[in-house]
Design goal:
Elements: H1 2-34, H2 42-58, H3 63-84, H4 93-115, E1 128-131, E2 134-137, H5 138-160, H6 162-172, H7 174-179, H8 184-206, H9 218-231, H10 235-257, H11 259-276, H12 280-289
Antiparallel strand pairs: 1-2
Transmembrane segments: 17-41, 61-81, 93-117, 137-158, 187-206, 264-285
GO molecular function: transmembrane transporter activity
Protein name: Amino acid/amide ABC transporter membrane protein 1, HAAT family
Amino acid sequence: MELAATLFSTAYQFGDAFAFLVISCAGLAVIFGMMGVINLAHGEFIMCGAYVTAATARAGLPLPLAILCGALVAGLVGMALERAVIRHLYHRPLDSIIATWGVSLIATQGVLIVLGSTMQGVGTPLGGVAVGDRSYSLYRLVLMGAAVALLAGLYWLFYRTRFGVVARATIERPQMARALGVDTRRVYGLTFGLGAALAGLAGGLYAPTMTMVPTMGATFMVESFVTVVVGGADIFVGAAPAAAILAAIRAGLTAWYGQLFGQIGLLVAVIVVIRILPGGLSAFIKRARR
């Protein structure tokens, strides 16, 4: 019985870390991995989704609909930002870093001034389940399922729909796409909006588990960038293996030595991957298939 409880605890911690990495990096993977835009405002899109989710849930909207509202608002804000700022900075990565960093500072300080240093959150739903002498949140199990569903949904969107085909063609060969009559500016705007909406979805999903503060997006930033860098440019090939490997490292080190060593393990892992596999896991997997 004790062995079973230990195995369940290890699997639970791995699944929780895997879900966090996948959900937090999905929006960044679309914007950075596919579009090549280094979006330092990723955490603020997550914060936007979380704040909207908390506000609409407290207003009486069911939590699933509140989460969707958070994702929708973050997506609309992302499309507006792309049209006003990012559109002029494609193929200028250093400028996009500075611009999105500035947006990040403005958003954080603006929320702090307007809404204050904290915001009333929403309680974690579904309660918990006891295994052995420990209790585990059922909502965390829902997040694990949501991470798998999110990967499957993104694969379907980009490989089984017309929008996905047009988006991949536009991002890989924009001149050819324009020659074939594709409105590439519209596709870029929708893709950036999708990445922002995915970030907002991450904030909405994790809103019941976190304290609502203007800087809450920073909690997701390191893990998001580490996962995307380790996964490589192809988010569908590299994201899941990268998240699984990093989740195993983080869960193992956290269980043995504490949370600080789990974070250090993530940073060491990305340094090793960048040194050995500059193209990330996706480039390695594609080479192995040939």
